[in-house]
Structure prediction request, 998 residues.
Amino acid sequence: MNTTAAVPEPQPATESVQPTDAPRAVAVARGDGIGPEIMDATLKVLDAAQAGLDYRTVEIGESVYRRGHSAGIEPEAWDTLRETGVFLKAPITTPQGGGVKSLNVTIRKTLGLYANVRPCIAYDPYIPIKHQHLDLVIVRENEEDLYAGIEHRQTDEVYQCLKLITRPGTERIVRYAFEYARRRGRKKVTCLSKDNIMKLTDGLFHKVFDEIAAEFPDIQHEHMIVDIGMARLANAPHLFDVVVTPNLYGDIVSDIAAEISGSVGLAPSANIGEHFAMFEAIHGSAPTIAGQNIANPSGLLLSAVKMLAHLGLGEKATLIHNAWLRTIEQGVHTVDIFGTVHSTRQVGTDEFADAVIERLGELPQSLKQATYASDTIPVTTPARKPAAKKELLGVDVFTHWTDGSPADLAQALMKAQTPDLELVMITNRGVKVWPGGLPETFLTDHWRCRFQHPSGAVIERSAVVKLLDQIDQEGLDFIKTEHLYQFDGERGFSLGQGQ
Amino acid sequence: MNTTAAVPEPQPATESVQPTDAPRAVAVARGDGIGPEIMDATLKVLDAAQAGLDYRTVEIGESVYRRGHSAGIEPEAWDTLRETGVFLKAPITTPQGGGVKSLNVTIRKTLGLYANVRPCIAYDPYIPIKHQHLDLVIVRENEEDLYAGIEHRQTDEVYQCLKLITRPGTERIVRYAFEYARRRGRKKVTCLSKDNIMKLTDGLFHKVFDEIAAEFPDIQHEHMIVDIGMARLANAPHLFDVVVTPNLYGDIVSDIAAEISGSVGLAPSANIGEHFAMFEAIHGSAPTIAGQNIANPSGLLLSAVKMLAHLGLGEKATLIHNAWLRTIEQGVHTVDIFGTVHSTRQVGTDEFADAVIERLGELPQSLKQATYASDTIPVTTPARKPAAKKELLGVDVFTHWTDGSPADLAQALMKAQTPDLELVMITNRGVKVWPGGLPETFLTDHWRCRFQHPSGAVIERSAVVKLLDQIDQEGLDFIKTEHLYQFDGERGFSLGQGQ
Prediction:
């Protein structure tokens, strides 16, 4: 069975407006392994803080997978998720083996959770770290980039994955990062991209970043090339505040930040979309220590704090977070973080929750106090912009060929030329091999053959169809095409090396 | 003017075989900024060690750019590079502004330097670091992945970059990594990829890694998902030995490793190809301290050591490297690394070279001794494999569309269907939106429309031409295509989410 088969038919979008003083409904899932006990501890703290939530339990995880639901979620659970719009999720155990799909990827894609938000904070000296200090937030784009999952094997030798970066997708993630910075007391947003190499895709990300930064003059902004930026972050994390970056870089940098913070076991995360948000610890279900009342519930508890802030319950979020900070700095530690000179009392999962509850209303004296405003961070849908004047200037036809030199291929392709489209360039793995070319260039069986009008004129789509027909009739194996466009007169394709 | 215009016409490949006792010719470039003085210091050490090299100086860098050569290299220099096959390069200053191309990218692409090799070593306690220890080598694929530079803007909203991973390109880089490990006394090779997401492209890299690892039973091997691997490396670099990885990940991880090693100013690098190799420090030309005899020549000197090893002059490489290690541990330091309790004497660039020369023949007592065997690391061209049976199963036609819902688009496309190719799926940014689909999915103007034969049968290329003709006649704006193939019966394309 497949993932979306588990999803009920589309319903009219549910408006989850509720009376302000009624308990706010949230979906919760107790998960697998240590999930149930850390969820119990978390909800105990929420209740003691009178968070005013109405929990709707959904079933997810190992037992659901075993019953044959390939994404690990009960079909009925989707209704609950849609109705509540907010999901507090304990870790699950994903069975190994064929046909099993990631529950997180399914929820993220199905419900459009475009922002992955990962605060990383060091709690030194209570949890020792190698670095000066660290208190940063990674805002990772969560839907596009190489993770759209569009891959094709095209020849015997060559495999391809599409990296897609969109303007609206970039606008909404960058705007979220700046809104987050403004409403959570952050000073600076750093953008990481590789736009010195990927001038169109990462170039767009950088350009949109600069555009939106201009709307937030109260927040500093900077751009770093991703390799240098990640190296800096790994070695001097105190230089960063909010980081916004495309999906792949965000995946890597959020793991680096968590690891060097020394607090992977304590770190919360949020996945935010227009209609829905999911909150969870970044650690796993740790089945080997399950049921022993020794797990640290902090990752899930701090995720719940972020959920309260997301719901506009800033006062409750502040109350719980400060009690938790006070607990940590007073040395009341679960076994995973017990052991420094600052540890005073080793406690179990349940006792840790009690210790936090005892401190509700207290403030940390040494660690930085938490403060959450009661405003929520706006989640926007970018409006569609007016269409540019798009004109077709040619086509890249990719061929599978092993029968000779680049010049031989050029000769064969020239037989297929039409009056509208003549061969102007051939590249192999991006290196120009015709006209010109060098004997040292290593050649695969995958050739990008660029055709344009002899005068550089704009052509019709039908000219592409005619060219492909000719190429086919010449017996040449074309495997894909990419149209060459200009938008409002601006070239929308990269030139070949040396073109 | 463009890059390749500066490259002379193709010549028959030069065989650089020379009598073994004649001086070995190498190209050297003194570069810009601190380049000339660190090159003088380096060559002084090589000469004192009687390395037996014949230097052929080539001109590169700022003055060459200013004379209008867009890649910063004299046209005549290419002949020298081709004749010698080996290049020791000082850092250059690349002018800012339009039309200027990276000299390194030009040399790498033109001469096929597929392996970027970056040893990173910590010299603690002489140079303090945050980590336990670090002594690893990054072997980065240097030619393919997203760096082929093939980008297209396809719609108002969507930009695309192609990630290409090839079997021969992967075979040669992985094989180089294992040969390097075997011949340089390394124990383990770690592969980093993201094959849990990119199952075809990164999946190929992982698969080839496993295949080649089987040929090297004396070397341990392991694979790590890139985000976890980089986080580990950033926090616990002593767990790594040799790392092999595609271009983009390699770019990032080699910067992380250099930065946390604390010795960016001392690190060498090699770019290796089948016909040619280039050696250089990883630092820049530092124009603000040029001409003052204060720069540290170690990065270039250690690059020269790697060059000697590459030439099979392992004895000379060992002699110089150990003298350098002894110099560092005896506290003879240039100003950039002077200052720990272990620093005993602050010296200039030239005096540092003299200090190394004085110690030729000595061994380090505390730092690990260097040993280079006199065998070179083989650089191979993978043989072309027999072609698989490739069969066409359909086509992904991408359209630019803003006129309605996914169902509206499906209806329009179905009018263009042919008996051979019927519409089976539409996705938007990789999420299936037809048939089925959910109201929460955010829609861009870029749709991937999959067509296959109603019975799943193999089709002819001409069926694709006919379909495109029909789509064009229906007035639908198709912007690119990707053929769907199977190779020896194995599906060569990813399924849509839920397909």
